[in-house]
Amino acid sequence: MNIIVQKYGGSSVGTTEKIKRVAEEIKKSKEESNEIVVIVSAMGDTTDELLELAGAVTNKPDSRELDMLLNTGEQVSIALLTMALQDLGCKAVSLTGAQLHLETTSSHQKARIKDIDLSRIKKELNQGRIVVVAGFQGVTDDEEYTTLGRGGSDTSAVALAAKLDARCEIYTDVEGIYTCDPRLLPGAKKLNHTSYEELIEMASLGAEVIHPRAVELAQKYQVPLYIAESCSKAEGTIINGNIDYLEASLVTGIAVNRDDIQITLRDLEADSYILAEVFNSLAEAEINVDMISQLLDKSGRMNLSFTIPEMDIEKARELIAFYRKDWGVSDWWIRSEVVKVSVVGPGMRTQPGVAAKVFKLLAQSEIPILMVTTSEIKISWLVPAGYEEEAVKVIGYNFGLTLEKD
Ligand code: ASP
Ligand code: MG
């Protein structure tokens, strides 16, 4: 029989009504003679609410205890979904990450998957059950509960699909992958098909439909992905294979990311070792740096700006306060009202001029630019918050990312 892994995100199981509807969908897939493994996220905003609860008790929650708390979110949704399936006459069982032995590293809230023991899942599938697995959860080899990081259920789903050699269907609250978030770019087109590479770029830039780590994993193990709206007949987006450069579009999409902040350090000694130390200490604190720009001034000192996730702001503050004397930083600041607008397109690799055209469009719209980075198939601009909609529209309309207007 054909095994299919289906993942339903928090918004798809946000209420008991929605859970019942999802159960109907799963029942239909099961009836098409498939073996079904379902991954679910916590209901709606549960994970945020749990974090808020922790925050109301302490502003420095212990990371082990935080994972004890966060694990409860998905445990609720797997149990309810399983009950709803049973109510429809389906044989089903729910399993937590620990029951599955979804083994991870011990780094709480950022655990990485080491291996998944398939014996329990196989046993349940063989008995004709639908297996409902808690996304996001893992367990260490000494039985400590972990979580995979925000949005981690996508990674759970793809990892399971890879192990089971199955196709992975991600059900969410939008119809698939769009050239841009239609809330920002009215008329944005839905893509019927795209490559792992393009989706990795779009997702890591904050396209929000699927976690980039999950797409990387899918690419690594060549897991076919299908992203679609839950409980809808609309055709979703198929993701498999790599970019076909002959057919590639100049620009595939635009992504907007509001999760980063910009930090500027002034007057560092212009010395590569200092730079290495700055980024090394950030890496040791597990802070991911994204955009970087470094400017030398006439006196031989340098100013360094970089962006990091907003959630790491306190860690970064402490770290800079601790090291600033060693690094020679005279002054530093954080700019949190920033947005990164990125243009992704495989055609950039072979055809020049995309950057030039975007710079011109941004200039014509008087959009200030704080930082720029480029890679093979992507260019990103950091702009002050509030300018992103204008930027997206002007780029989207000029690169044909919207449906034709008639
Ligand atoms: N519930 C977790 C979160 O909100 C995991 C997920 O939804 O993927 O981040
Ligand atoms: Mg998600």
Automatic annotation (TrEMBL):
<keyword id="KW-0067">ATP-binding</keyword>
<feature type="binding site">
    <location>
        <begin position="172"/>
        <end position="173"/>
    </location>
    <ligand>
        <name>ATP</name>
    </ligand>
</feature>
<feature type="binding site">
    <location>
        <position position="183"/>
    </location>
    <ligand>
        <name>ATP</name>
    </ligand>
</feature>
<dbReference type="InterPro" id="IPR018042">
    <property type="entry name" value="Aspartate_kinase_CS"/>
</dbReference>
<dbReference type="Pfam" id="PF00696">
    <property type="entry name" value="AA_kinase"/>
</dbReference>
<dbReference type="GO" id="GO:0005829">
    <property type="term" value="C:cytosol"/>
</dbReference>
<dbReference type="InterPro" id="IPR001048">
    <property type="entry name" value="Asp/Glu/Uridylate_kinase"/>
</dbReference>
<dbReference type="InterPro" id="IPR001341">
    <property type="entry name" value="Asp_kinase"/>
</dbReference>
<comment type="pathway">
    <text>Amino-acid biosynthesis; L-methionine biosynthesis via de novo pathway; L-homoserine from L-aspartate: step 1/3.</text>
</comment>
<dbReference type="InterPro" id="IPR045865">
    <property type="entry name" value="ACT-like_dom_sf"/>
</dbReference>
<dbReference type="GO" id="GO:0004072">
    <property type="term" value="F:aspartate kinase activity"/>
</dbReference>
<comment type="function">
    <text>Catalyzes the phosphorylation of the beta-carboxyl group of aspartic acid with ATP to yield 4-phospho-L-aspartate, which is involved in the branched biosynthetic pathway leading to the biosynthesis of amino acids threonine, isoleucine and methionine.</text>
</comment>
<feature type="domain" description="Aspartokinase ACT">
    <location>
        <begin position="341"/>
        <end position="399"/>
    </location>
</feature>
<keyword id="KW-0808">Transferase</keyword>
<dbReference type="InterPro" id="IPR005260">
    <property type="entry name" value="Asp_kin_monofn"/>
</dbReference>
<comment type="pathway">
    <text>Amino-acid biosynthesis; L-lysine biosynthesis via DAP pathway; (S)-tetrahydrodipicolinate from L-aspartate: step 1/4.</text>
</comment>
<protein>
    <recommendedName>
        <fullName>Aspartokinase</fullName>
        <ecNumber>2.7.2.4</ecNumber>
    </recommendedName>
</protein>
<dbReference type="Pfam" id="PF22468">
    <property type="entry name" value="ACT_9"/>
</dbReference>
<dbReference type="InterPro" id="IPR036393">
    <property type="entry name" value="AceGlu_kinase-like_sf"/>
</dbReference>
<dbReference type="InterPro" id="IPR041740">
    <property type="entry name" value="AKii-LysC-BS"/>
</dbReference>
<feature type="binding site">
    <location>
        <begin position="7"/>
        <end position="10"/>
    </location>
    <ligand>
        <name>ATP</name>
    </ligand>
</feature>
<feature type="binding site">
    <location>
        <position position="178"/>
    </location>
    <ligand>
        <name>ATP</name>
    </ligand>
</feature>
<keyword id="KW-0028">Amino-acid biosynthesis</keyword>
<keyword id="KW-0547">Nucleotide-binding</keyword>
<dbReference type="GO" id="GO:0009089">
    <property type="term" value="P:lysine biosynthetic process via diaminopimelate"/>
</dbReference>
<feature type="binding site">
    <location>
        <position position="47"/>
    </location>
    <ligand>
        <name>substrate</name>
    </ligand>
</feature>
<dbReference type="InterPro" id="IPR054352">
    <property type="entry name" value="ACT_Aspartokinase"/>
</dbReference>
<dbReference type="GO" id="GO:0009090">
    <property type="term" value="P:homoserine biosynthetic process"/>
</dbReference>
<feature type="domain" description="Aspartate/glutamate/uridylate kinase">
    <location>
        <begin position="2"/>
        <end position="228"/>
    </location>
</feature>
<dbReference type="GO" id="GO:0019877">
    <property type="term" value="P:diaminopimelate biosynthetic process"/>
</dbReference>
<feature type="domain" description="Aspartokinase ACT">
    <location>
        <begin position="274"/>
        <end position="319"/>
    </location>
</feature>
<dbReference type="GO" id="GO:0005524">
    <property type="term" value="F:ATP binding"/>
</dbReference>
<feature type="binding site">
    <location>
        <position position="74"/>
    </location>
    <ligand>
        <name>substrate</name>
    </ligand>
</feature>
<keyword id="KW-0418">Kinase</keyword>
<comment type="similarity">
    <text>Belongs to the aspartokinase family.</text>
</comment>
<keyword id="KW-0220">Diaminopimelate biosynthesis</keyword>
<keyword id="KW-0457">Lysine biosynthesis</keyword>
